[in-house]
Design goal:
Length: 188
């Protein structure tokens, strides 16, 4: 039941928003009582924190796997990370929506658990770009920190508009993004 409450909360927070979703909405959608909810969770914020932690921990694990693959170039790793972020829109659309849209609804304590992980993801990507610069795959004069923020902004915004059932596949979108990125950072 705990997982059902968690999953229904993701769905409702994604559709309605965190503030517009009450505990009553969640339990009504599942046909359970508030007592059942409170048996598993102390508050809506506890669920929201769980959504954030599960989402970012999953991204970090996938990113780590890509980055530590010694058989791939920095360009290939960058493509795989961009593709992973776009693919997440398909596989975890509501979680992504909640992650990016509802951060402001977490109090300071939960923020202190999420922000270091978000920073870790960003810094891992920045180090990959810096590694690509050092290896001569990417231009020396680019600013890795700004390029990183640009890539993340572009990919993270995709949850707003990318429709996995639409005319473009996740692979096509990732390729378009990579073409744009590489036009700006790749050496000749």
């Amino acid at each position: 039941m705990k997982e059902k409450i968690f999953e229904k909360s993701i769905e409702l927070f994604g559709e309605r928003g965190f503030n517009e979703t009450s505990i009553q909405h969640i339990v009504d959608a599942l046909g359970v009582t508030k007592g059942t909810f409170y048996y598993y969770f102390k508050s809506k914020e506890e669920i929201l924190l769980g959504i954030h932690l599960r989402f970012i921990d999953d991204l970090l694990a996938k990113q780590s796997q890509i980055i530590h693959d010694g058989n791939k170039s920095c360009e290939q790793k960058l493509y795989e990370i961009v593709y992973m972020l776009i693919k997440n829109v398909e596989t975890q659309a509501q979680s992504a929506r909640v992650f990016f849209r509802e951060m402001q609804n977490l109090s300071e304590g939960p923020h202190s658990q999420i922000f270091p992980k978000r920073d870790e993801f960003r810094l891992n990507l920045q180090r990959l770009i810096e590694d690509g610069i050092a290896k001569g795959e990417f231009r020396k004069e680019i600013q890795a920190d700004i390029v990183t923020l640009g890539i993340l902004g572009m990919c993270n915004w995709s949850y707003h508009w990318f429709d996995p059932q639409g005319p473009l596949t996740d692979q096509t979108v990732a390729k378009i993004y990579m073409d744009m990125i590489l036009q700006g950072i790749k050496t000749d």
